[in-house]
Design goal:
heterodimer, A: 692 residues, alpha+beta, 5 domains, 5-stranded antiparallel β-sheet, 3-stranded antiparallel β-sheet, 17 strands, 49% helix, 13% strand, B: alpha+beta, BirA Bifunctional Protein, domain 2, 8 helices, 11 strands, ATP-binding (chain B), aminoacyl-trna synthetase (chain B), ATP binding (chain B), glycine-tRNA ligase activity (chain B)
Chain lengths: 692, 312
């Protein structure tokens, strides 16, 4: 016979974003516990609302299986005295097993007789095992935990009731002041407490009390109501899945309603309207069939449709107050020119220890032009880039961004357009902060990508120079995120940028001008390069590239980010080639020997007159061929050339005594090795590779 | 709905209600502060093991929010109705909802939600977990289970309910501007507060004497630090409140840059933590008189002497 078990944790309102992960966690913990307790079951069915995490466990076995096992005791010699009487040792052993010496049998183990008893452990009934759900509940963890009253248990919110029934019987246990029983609570305002008679009644009983406990059904109800409303009014409503998830976890009995606002607010930038509705009020916004915003919104009430006109009026009032504020800011902003705002940036600090925001823009104007020219932007693009870089932070001092900080860049782009800037400039302004998270959206335009790069390079360089270098978890200015943004943009655009040259040229351009930041940026170049390389490592790790390949490419000498990323790809692709191991081993052998040498760059000439055998000549020729145009090659071509050296290298090592007694000859050998090593290192530090 | 409650009727209703639920009615504390939480009746009394149930109105000053009396919803000074209950009662959410019913807000005729909002006041070393309470989409109260106050971990935990009185009254009276609220007997909120709103905004944004404020901050800080060492907790706390308000004035004037800001906040936090610690020590010296369970009291006092040795 199988059983059904119902467990409901009744809580004060959980944060909406915590509900879904928490019910998953409860399922996992309950399942693991039962498995560990050797209780089988068919399935676990979840329910969740803001106030409850519930599971129904179906097809539960009656009890744990019994265990029969043979337990070994002392040897016969010890267990019985000369007369065959049981010794204290034997009696003690059986007592320890809950048995008597009558149960003893002897078995021969490797020539010696030992005491054995057969032990029967009856399985615990499922009821006993289920009282252990108490610990399953208290072991749950949450992103934010709290204590309440006089208790020390930390939980997501206070636990107010617990339902724990097996079929139709309560499985009792207590957590703090809460005793598990069969009483659940209905909707906070529309429902009443209700005693669940048996497990399968749960969903329907709660429905009677205005709670849709099944989160999926509740979500579907919301979606259906939204669609009905949209159909009725010929609206288009994009049901944002994140917002839907949040709204679903704010209500137990959803009733969808629509409200409106005065048409005149449609004058506001769409981003402001959407932010006000979606982010501030958790409203769905409404569009016409062409995607144009309409002066309506849709929201879910946690309740039925009685007196819904009050709810609509209240929500309209709140939204109107917000939009009214926004309108006031908008008109004030519209009365001012971009120049006005740009001038005000002279009084806004980028950071006290660095410069004003205005000065930052001046630096970025130079930096972005250097990058733009390097990556081959055309003259129109360069012109637009220049304009964008001269004004791109202006929205920071608009009243709108003062109120809606999350719209920085977006408002800048919108205002720029309204104030007569062209689309490319506006777009670059909007894209300057991208990506705003480590896997966020990247700039789509070349000008935007260039501006975003320049802005990030400047931030990292200046913060480093001012001594504010991220360490451990301390990265208040999100410089790591900006560095990963740099890496991702460069890769997406396939831009070859030599970090070292680039950073030097930024500083040179700035120093030549009057807005020099007065910080020693030059001394930080190597730190900044290492910092960015660290992000390359993280990016490659996230793409599951082997650790040794990553180590190898970031320790290569080519300071071009794209080259490093591509080299990792090349090694990753070739690592399973049949000749990979051979190629790498021959090259790393060269590298290791060259470690023994120490030459100045101008000494690195191989003298063919000192060659002792043919293999030296052949390797020398092969290396010369490899060298030809080498520093302009793509990583895959480089790999091919280096890989082709394996034959001449192995011949060379076979026929040549590197450490010749004649120091002149020996040095000639070593020079050859160093020359080749330098070529390899340009590609990657292959010695870091682990080849099997 | 029946006759719309005036501001003073709302206050009286809430006072009467919470008094009937075991709260002592305290009066607004007479030193400038940014929120009801900063009254010693909350900040200090939340700390330590003694039970404490209070309700009071607290005028709260936020110089940077001043709008010269021109914005219908933003004020230099607004009024909070503050309820602090320690330990947090089991039915505290229901107590709150019933208080709304007393104000004529029937939950079945509205949409009342508890929306996650974890509160923190880093400058006072405070953090808590709780919600904003939405009434038909408008945030009318803040509900917090204090977890840390003045750097002290809560044990027992206090629950704090803060009603934004102007917000709530705007809803109850159905007006769009706080200045149109009726305070009592036909006298409007604007009649009372429009002029001070203008003057305080003018002062805070344009006329405040920065050097004087900077000097005052330093003097207050010095005094507070000295008094904490002497175990004079309450006068010390008054000076911390003055530091906080002085900082807010400087901030509103735009006299504080981003990094300086962090520095000032750290200085206030340091004092807030020290005074919260000192408060518990002083209460222990007095034998935690609000704990009526003699056994528990004795136990806590025993701990005290041990800790004290440990401290030295």
């Amino acid at each position: 016979m199988t059983h059904e078990y119902l467990l409901e944790i009744g809580l004060e309102e959980m944060p909406a974003h915590v509900v879904t992960p928490s019910i998953k966690q409860l399922i996992k913990r309950a399942g693991d516990y039962l498995k560990q307790q050797r209780i089988t079951f068919d399935s676990i069915k979840p329910f969740s609302t803001p106030r409850r995490l519930t599971i129904q466990i179906l097809g539960l076995s009656d009890k744990q299986p019994d265990i029969n096992k043979s337990v070994k005791g002392p040897s016969k010699k010890i267990a019985q005295d000369d007369k065959g009487n049981w010794t204290k040792a034997a009696i003690g052993f059986t007592r320890g097993q809950g048995l008597t010496p009558d149960d003893i049998q002897f078995k021969n183990v490797k020539g010696t007789d030992y005491v054995f008893v057969n032990k029967h452990i009856p399985g615990k009934p499922v009821q006993d095992v289920l009282s252990g759900m108490k610990k399953v509940i208290t072991d749950m963890t949450f992103p934010t935990m709290m204590k309440w009253n006089v208790y020390h248990l930390e939980y997501v919110r206070p636990i107010r009731w617990i339902v724990s029934i097996l079929d139709d019987q309560v499985i009792p246990f207590s957590i703090l002041d809460v005793k598990a029983n069969r009483i659940t609570r209905g909707h906070r305002f529309l429902g009443h407490d209700v005693a669940i008679k048996k497990v399968s009644d749960y969903e329907d009983d709660l429905k009677q009390q205005y709670v849709i406990a099944d989160a999926k059904k509740r979500k579907q109800l919301i979606v259906n109501q939204i669609h009905d409303l949209a159909k009725k009014h010929h609206w288009q409503i994009k049901v944002d899945p994140n917002l839907l998830e949040e709204v679903n976890n704010l209500v137990e009995w959803p009733t969808i309603f629509a409200g409106s606002f005065n048409r005149r607010y449609l004058e506001l930038p769409a981003s402001v309207l959407i932010t006000s509705m979606r982010d501030n009020q958790r409203f769905f916004y409404v569009e016409d069939q062409n995607g144009k915003l309409l002066p309506y919104f849709v929201s879910a009430r946690n309740g039925n449709s009685d007196y819904i006109e009050n709810v609509i009026a209240g929500n309209e009032k709140v939204l109107t107050a917000r939009l009214d504020d926004a309108m006031f800011f908008y008109h004030n902003d519209m009365n001012k020119s971009i120049d006005y705002f740009v001038n005000r940036l002279k009084r806004v600090s980028f950071h006290d220890r660095i410069s004003t925001m205005y000065e930052k823009m001046q630096r970025v104007e130079h930096i972005s032009q250097i990058i733009g020219k390097h990556v081959g932007l055309d003259s129109t693009q360069l012109k637009n880039l220049k304009r964008a870089s001269q004004i791109y932070k202006f929205d920071l001092v608009t009243e709108m961004v003062g109120e809606f900080a999350e719209l920085q860049g977006v408002i800048g782009a919108k205002y720029a357009q309204l104030k007569g800037e062209n689309d490319e400039v506006a777009r670059a302004i909007r894209e300057q902060y991208m990506p705003i998270s480590s896997d966020g959206e990247l700039p789509q335009s070349k000008v935007g990508a260039t501006l975003a790069l320049a802005d990030k390079f400047d931030s990292i360089l200046t913060f480093f120079s001012a001594g504010m270098i991220p360490s451990g978890s301390n990265d208040p200015y999100a410089l790591r995120r900006q560095a990963i943004g740099i890496v991702r943009i460069i890769r997406r655009e396939s831009w070859h940028l030599n970090l070292n040259d680039l950073l030097n040229s930024f500083i040179k351009a700035e120093t030549a001008d009057e807005f020099d930041v007065q910080l020693d940026q030059k001394s930080q170049i190597n730190n900044v390069i290492d910092f960015i390389k660290d992000r390359i490592v993280k990016l490659l790790q996230s793409e599951k590239i082997h650790h040794d390949i990553i180590e190898s490419v970031v320790n290569g000498h080519n300071p071009d980010i794209l080259f490093i990323l591509d080299s990792a790809d090349v090694l990753n692709q070739h690592q399973n080639d049949s000749d990979f191991k051979l190629s790498i081993e021959s090259l790393t052998r060269v590298m290791r020997i060259s470690n023994k040498a120490n030459f100045k760059p101008d000494e690195l000439n191989v003298d063919p007159n000192l060659f002792q055998n043919d293999s030296e000549k052949k390797l020398n020729q092969a290396v010369d061929e490899v060298k030809n145009g080498y520093y302009h090659l793509m990583p895959n071509e480089i790999y091919q050339r280096l890989s082709n050296l394996k034959r001449p290298i192995s011949d060379y090592f076979e026929q040549t005594m590197i450490m010749d007694k004649n120091s002149e000859i020996k040095n000639n050998h070593l020079k050859q090795m160093v020359i080749l090593t330098n070529l390899i290192l340009w590609f990657a530090d292959l010695d870091k590779l682990i080849v099997k | 709905m029946t006759k719309k409650l005036s501001m003073q009727e709302i206050i009286l209703t809430l006072q009467e209600y919470w008094a009937s639920k075991g709260c002592m009615l305290m009066q607004a504390y007479d030193t400038e502060k940014g929120a009801g939480t900063m009254s010693p009746y909350t900040f200090l009394r939340a700390v330590g093991p003694e039970p404490w149930n209070v309700a009071y109105v607290e005028p709260s000053r936020r110089p940077a929010d001043g709008r010269y009396g021109k914005n219908p919803n933003r004020l230099y000074q607004h009024h909070q109705f503050q309820v602090l209950m320690k330990p947090s009662p089991e039915n505290v959410q229901d107590l709150y909802i019933n208080s709304l019913k007393k104000l004529g807000i029937n939950p079945l005729e509205h949409d009342i939600r508890f929306v996650e909002d974890n509160w923190a006041n880093p400058s006072m070393g405070c953090a808590g977990v709780g919600w904003e309470i939405w009434l038909d989409g408008m945030e009318v109260s803040q509900f917090t289970y204090f977890q840390i106050v003045g750097g002290q971990e809560m044990d027992p935990v206090a629950s704090e309910i803060t009603y934004g009185l102007e917000r709530l009254a705007s809803y109850v009276q159905d007006v769009n501007s706080v200045f149109d609220l009726e305070w009592g007997y036909g006298v409007k909120y604007g009649d009372i507060f429009k002029e001070p709103e203008y003057e305080h905004s003018k002062y805070g944004f344009e006329e405040s004497n920065q050097n004087m404020l900077l000097n005052m901050f330093n003097s207050y800080e010095k005094e507070a630090t000295r008094l904490i060492k002497l175990g004079l907790v309450h006068p010390a706390y008054d000076y911390i409140l003055k530091c906080s308000h002085t900082f807010n004035l400087l901030d509103a004037r735009g006299a504080v840059s981003v990094t300086e800001r962090a520095g000032y906040l750290a200085r206030i936090r340091k004092m807030a933590r020290a005074v919260a610690k000192a408060f518990v020590i002083e209460r222990k010296k007095r034998g935690f008189p609000l704990i009526k369970d003699e056994k528990k009291r004795a136990e806590l006092l025993k701990d005290h002497s041990k800790n004290k040795k440990g401290d030295k």
